[in-house]
Write a structure and sequence with these properties.
With 140 residues, the protein is of the alpha+beta class. The protein has helices at residues 3-16, 64-77, 82-96, 103-106, 119-136; strands at residues 29-35, 40-49, 52-61. It has a single domain, classed as Sufe protein. Chain: A (Alpha-Beta Complex), CATH 3.90.1010. The protein has five helices and three strands. The longest helix is centred in the last third of the chain and has 18 residues, at 119-136. The radius of gyration is 14 Å and the shape is globular.
């Protein structure tokens, strides 16, 4: 199996069986965003334990790229410190922009690396990072 096929399988798996999907009873931070060009919608909720992301959940509607990106992003940041999370987001943005990035920091998020070949789809893949960034700004 090629790396491209593996990445496609990861994206499909996270789209069909999203991780951390749903709502929290009492989130510490909540954010939402949309991509009006294609109709993607995403809401993200976080619970913090000090400077760690204790839990994260999302809901939304949209294409396989936006929804699998949200699932992959929540998996990547759960249990991480705010500094680690910002590092993941920075590397993710570099990857989507076609810049050099550290695949070790991204883990399975790297499955979305081919999205950068399709500029119209980059907005779909970057929605989760934008919504997460808004939620992190609520952390005091």
């Amino acid at each position: 199996m090629s790396l491209e096929e593996l990445f496609k399988e990861i994206i499909i798996e996270h789209y069909q069986h999203p991780k951390n999907h749903g709502h929290m009873e009492h989130p510490d931070a909540k954010s939402e965003g949309s991509n009006p060009l294609c109709g993607d919608e995403l809401q993200m909720e976080l619970c913090f334990d000090g400077d760690h992301i204790k839990d994260v959940m999302f809901t939304g509607n949209g294409c396989s790229i936006s929804q699998s990106a949200a699932s992959l992003m929540t998996e990547a940041i759960k249990g991480k410190t705010l500094e680690e999370t910002r590092g993941i987001m920075d590397e993710y943005k570099k990857m989507l922009q076609g810049n050099s990035y550290d695949p070790d920091i991204l883990g399975d998020l790297e499955a979305l690396s081919d999205v950068r070949k399709y500029p119209a789809r980059v907005k779909c893949a970057s929605l989760s990072a934008a919504v997460l960034d808004q939620a992190l700004q609520q952390k005091k």
